Amino acid sequence: MTARLGFWQLDRARQKEALQAAVLALGEKPPLQTAELTALSQMPDGLTQQLHRRVSLRGRWLNERTVFLDNRPMDGRTGFFVVTPLQLEGQSALVLVQRGWSPRDASNRSQLQNVPTPSGLVSVSGRLIAAPSKVYEFSGAPLGLIRQNLDLPAFEQELGRPLLPVTVLQLAEAQVGEQPAPDGLLRSWQAPDAGVHKHYGYAFQWFLLSALILGLYVWFQTIRPRKQP
């Protein structure tokens, strides 16, 4: 039974390797432009099939709807993920952009870093993800500037505007024209990981347990009886 579980974990690892390869292949494709992104949003599952693909978008920040997601670590420090809707150029739809990480003020939790945000047309490069990561939160958490989590359908209702069902993980400073627009945010995002090594670790544990059971069986059923007088 334990050996079967080990082989099952190896099979899961092979499935995850195939998934990881597909993610890497999407990441190597040319970035989706604004028009392509909006066209895909009109197709069933058009955007979800492009998760982890790079994008190069143009639009305007809705800075007044920026949200700071609390309890998000980066490089061993605690702080916030800064999330701002971007109105795509020539479109009424919005896409949520996870712009980067901002540190927490140790003396005043509600004191937030000023994040410079251009008011005009900007170019944003990033990678498509499903939604910002979630942390545990108590029910009835307030819906203010600082939040624990962000649910896309619920946030769409707050905005009163169409919101694409994906999020952009910003990879570099936005640009205004040809010039970068520094915002002081950190972007040491973790690379996509399907968790392949976890399954290999589980498989090793099951096979080790199988070997232990086999060894005990041989000892008690064969070796030990022979040693008795």
From TrEMBL:
<keyword id="KW-1003">Cell membrane</keyword>
<comment type="similarity">
    <text>Belongs to the SURF1 family.</text>
</comment>
<dbReference type="InterPro" id="IPR002994">
    <property type="entry name" value="Surf1/Shy1"/>
</dbReference>
<dbReference type="InterPro" id="IPR045214">
    <property type="entry name" value="Surf1/Surf4"/>
</dbReference>
<keyword id="KW-0472">Membrane</keyword>
<dbReference type="Pfam" id="PF02104">
    <property type="entry name" value="SURF1"/>
</dbReference>
<feature type="transmembrane region" description="Helical">
    <location>
        <begin position="200"/>
        <end position="220"/>
    </location>
</feature>
<protein>
    <recommendedName>
        <fullName>SURF1-like protein</fullName>
    </recommendedName>
</protein>
<keyword id="KW-1133">Transmembrane helix</keyword>
<keyword id="KW-0812">Transmembrane</keyword>
